Amino acid sequence: MSEPKTTLPDARVSPRFAGICTFYRYPRLEDVEREGKAVDWAVYGAPFDSGVTFRPGARFGPRAVREASQYVKVHHVGHDVTVTHALSLADAGDAPVRTYSCAENDAAMTAWARGVGDPDRTRLLAFGGDHSIALANIRATWERRGRPAGGLALLHFDAHLDTVDAVWGERHGHASPFIRAIEAGYVDPRRMISVGIRGPLNTRTDLDYAKEHGVRVATPEELRSGGPGLLAEFVGSLGGAETYLSVDIDVFDPAYAPGTGTPAVGGLTSAEGLAALRALAGVNLVGADVVEVLPDRDPSGITALLAAQVGFEALALGAIG
């Protein structure tokens, strides 16, 4: 086996419940950079939830996921890849937050994310926080990739479309990251799929924006009937385009992910969701986020653990891409 690109404490020497708590026990970015080493993926927290429309508390999500990730190991069985051998990885800490303003938080987080690691090499995995934080990570990713004309392709897993123009006059909340990203040219809606979308909706017209702009919408029922092949086919249609992955934990049924602020029944099981993510093999992944973990509604920690696994799935896709 090749030498690892990311060195972790040996779990059979140093217990997983000991030491500094970082995402997946990865080294801190500042320590890696001090040694003059490059980083392929930087993982960071975005503890902001002032963009929510129902139950708050996702600001504590990054801490919960960091803790849960201590037991996520390094080898992905399905893809047969050891991510720490394929990638240099680090925990970049938490982005700054501006708690009282979604727009100000978006600007502050974007400015910070632009400079994480090596902008020409390092890819960003953000843990929220509510889904409004996705806009900043998408924008920073788009800029770091050289502002590709037409925008990035987008793989979006969620119970909700998040293309509402405004809620209560707020245009940068967690219901609006993708309409803002499409408007700004960071995302190409014709190369976007939203997976797991389900009702009930406030109004039938909530579907109109996606339909009018060419977003492919797949309900849980469609995914179950089409199987992982539906997503593999979509990835194949992208032709290697630079692609961003955004996963709202409420894509999973509340039985599997109770710790979220806007739960919707009838979602994916954890097995279905992970199988869907693994069907994305071959995607040219350039950035990702996992959002909406609400620890207060997650007393057993299963939602945080699932979110940590989802993040690991993203890193595994990056390792084999």
Plain-language structure description:
With 321 residues, this protein is of the alpha/beta class. It has one domain (23-320): Ureohydrolase domain (Arginase, Chain A, 3-Layer(aba) Sandwich). Helix content is 31%, strand content 17%. The protein has 11 helices and 10 strands. The chain has helices spanning 29-34, 61-68, 83-86, 102-114, 133-144, 177-184, 208-213, 220-226, 229-237, 270-278, 302-320; strands at residues 41-46, 75-76, 81-82, 89-94, 123-128, 152-157, 187-195, 216-218, 242-248, 284-291. The strands form 2 sheets. Strands 4-1-5-10-9-6-7-8 form an 8-stranded parallel beta sheet, sandwiched between helices. A hairpin with a 4-residue loop joins strand 2 (75-76) and strand 3 (81-82). Helix 2 (61-68) packs across helix 11. The radius of gyration is 18 Å and the shape is globular. The two termini are 19 Å apart.
